[in-house]
Amino acid sequence: MNHDELVKQQFNIQAKQFSTWSTTVNETYNRRFFQFCGIRPEDHVLDVACGSGAFSIFCAKQAARVTGVDISDNMLSYAQQQAQLEGLKNAEFKCHSVEHLPEPDSSFSIVLSKAAFHHFPSPNAVFLEMQRCCRPGGRLCIQDILAYADPEVDAYFEQLEKAIDRCHYRTWPKRLFLDMFEGAGITSPRAVEVQVPMAFDDYISHAAQDETARAEIEKLIQQGQENPAINAFLSRPNGRLSFTRNVLLIRGQKSD
User: Fold this and answer.
1) In terms of Cα–Cα distance, which of 113, 140, 133, 135 is closest to 48?
2) pLDDT at residue 152 above 90?
3) Is 131 a residue whose pLDDT tops 80?
4) Residues sharing a CB contact under 8 Å with residue 166, sequence separation 6 or more, in sequence order
């Protein structure tokens, strides 16, 4: 099974729980990225790897038109249902690999991807497609989790991420995103990092695991608490064991 097939299979299984996950529907997070992207009423937005469409729908309420593309048809069924429920006529969703976007060149004023690049084996290929679909003078925007600077800490959390969600490919370092934007000649790139606390119980629940994976998750969490280097990134706000992730928001303008 190749990675695209794995992602499609896994997200088809966990579509319902992902669509209602607290992070997916968090209006504060959606508004923050929306404002960071600078989306305006006249914009035509392409949401790459849109998942269950929560951010696409958030954008459609304030932009001229939104197209969401994702590889999981089950995820998109939730997006379409929600758009219909809210009476949105300016949002459409397409099931397709994001390495070959089903859109014409230069057809969107904003092309974005939210919380998806850690699923991509070939992030540069996806970014090139995003760039192709963006109009000259349009904006390219990405939000995603970042790799930890300490190799030991990063290796631990990568193992944990893959146990929680088997279609997690890799959490990329900030340098990769900067290099993609700079290498593509994107003008005026702006990058902002924010720290986001994530409760383990909530984070684990967004994906589907079998008994073997759940046992591995429990073992890893215990090991993390016993390792001083890992434990430095753990906390217990309101009594819930949590970990801290750095999240990157980066945007830039496609050259005219």
Assistant:
1) 113
2) yes
3) yes
4) 6, 10, 207, 209, 213
Tokens describing residue 142: 């990405």
Domain count, the chain: 1
User: Do residues 53 and 68 touch, judged by C-beta distance below 8 A?
Assistant: yes
Whole-angstrom CA distances from 34 to 20, 149, 183 are 20, 27, 25
C-alpha 39, offset from chain centre:
18
Q: Read off the pLDDT of residues 62-96 as tens digits, 9 standing for 90 and up.
A: 999 999 999 999 999 999 999 999 999 999 999 99
Secondary-structure breakdown of the chain: helix, strand, coil percentages, each rounded to the nearest 5: 45, 25, 30
Determine if residue 41 is left, alpha or beta; phi over 0 gives left, psi from -120 to 50 gives alpha, anything else beta.
Answer: alpha
| pTM over cut 0.90 | yes
Does 125 have pLDDT greater than 90? yes
| Per-residue pLDDT, 251 | 97
The two three-digit tokens of residue 237, written as one number: 């706000």
Q: List the one residue out of 77, 23, 3 whose CA is nearest residue 198.
A: 23
| Interstrand relation of 242-253 and 187-199 (parallel, antiparallel or unpaired) | antiparallel
Structural domain span for residue 138: 3-253
> Above 90 in pLDDT, residue 15?
no
How far, in Å, CA of 69 to CA of 128, rounded? 15
CATH number at residue 151: 3.40.50.150
